[in-house]
Amino acid sequence: MTARRRPRWSELRPLLQPGAGPLGLTDRRLARASSVEDLRALARRRAPRAVFDYTDGAAGRELALRRSRQAYARVEFLPRVLQDVSSVDLSTTILGTPSSAPLVFAPTGFTRMMHTEGEPAVARVAARTGLPYALSTMGTTSIERLAAEVPKGRRWFQLYLWRDRAASRDLVERARESGYEALVLTVDTPVPGPRLRDARNGLTIPPSLTARTVAEAVRHPAWWVDLLTTEPLEFASLHRFEGTVAELVARMFDPSATMDDLAWLRSAWPGPLIVKGVQTVADARAVVDGGADAIVVSNHGGRQLDRAPTPLEILPEVADAVGDRAEVYVDGGILSGSDVVAAVALGARAALVGRAYLYGLMAGGERGVQRAADLLLQEAATTLALLGVARIEDLGRNHVRLRPG
Ligand SMILES: Cc1cc2nc3c(=O)[nH]c(=O)nc-3n(C[C@H](O)[C@H](O)[C@H](O)COP(=O)(O)O)c2cc1C
Ligand SMILES: CC(C)CC(=O)C(=O)O
């Protein structure tokens, strides 16, 4: 007689979360979400406040985030009619490799805190949908585990430069050995951005048990059941850390990094190198001179320097300055497929999204991320058809104009 195996906590998860089954509440709610904003509302209900605010929030007075979003509202499309849009093609190339759409899943830290399915869930959706996914240095799934769990699809690795350069070199080496296609060096985080919501909420990594978090547990049981029934958070790169996000950045990140470090990385990484967080034309020129194959015009979703330049507004200038030597991507404030179309029309080869898929993840794990991706792609296709453009590759600045700010 074989001994009866005791169920593991993780196997009990579906029973403890009745909404998560195939016919469950979560699926019906996700199906009813008709925009990323609807997913955001679901995410807000499911996640504890500190986790939702970490994701949703930005630096200082959040002016940079608000402006990044408002810039998309200033874009007016100029549709052409009678253009045969019976079939619309969103496909393009990113770094010379085919992509189903000009869209990339941006690197985000602590993704398993939003939902324990975390990075592998996002990477699976990206692979299934034919889009690249960037694992963050601050990810909560290791470089090797992600590659093993999601071997298909395009995996990029995002690097923060540690004070400990040997540790950074080790990360680059591990990404290379695990078959990551591209390296994304983020350059807008020399010191922690002032995240006021995190400070007010007393957010720590991992979330600690305090009177406040226990009270939150009662109000958001699904999230806590999830957290308690999976393995502890693991880091893509850190061994162990406990403290606030600001403490972590201050302790680990290297504020003394210079263009010499870019030169070092260029020589250490044989594949495509993307520099993320470029915010001026001068820096775009400098990093492309330094060997970047692509740049992301980004203010980190408004999470670092408040009052930073608005990515969509500087995008055309940057694309004009370096677009013939490097691919130019943009991110910050993109919440719809129509935003993606606006970004491409204004000169981006691709747009990155962060919060858009994280809202889906918080709302319903992998299925929520899939819903976010589906919404973005459907909206982009509809926008293109209504613009009278059958192929996204034919989209240009002649299809948009900017309303006065
Ligand atoms: C919760 C969260 C965590 C993030 N973590 C990282 C990170 O670890 N590395 C990085 O380069 N960017 C990080 N970012 C910035 C994103 O890569 C991206 O630039 C930003 O989310 C784009 O703005 P959007 O969220 O409005 O789409 C993070 C963003 C969010 C919302
Ligand atoms: C540790 C962080 C700075 C992660 C990040 O990039 C973010 O929260 O925006």
Automatic annotation (TrEMBL):
Residues that hold FMN according to the record: 107-109, 136, 158, 186, 276, 298, 354-355
Keywords: Flavoprotein, FMN, Oxidoreductase
Cofactor: FMN
Upper lineage: Bacteria, Bacillati, Actinomycetota, Actinomycetes, Jiangellales
Top enzyme class: oxidoreductase
Cross-referenced Pfam families: FMN_dh (PF01070)
Gene3D superfamilies for the chain: Aldolase class I
Coiled-coil spans in chain: none
Domain of life: Bacteria
UniProt name for this protein: L-lactate dehydrogenase (Cytochrome)
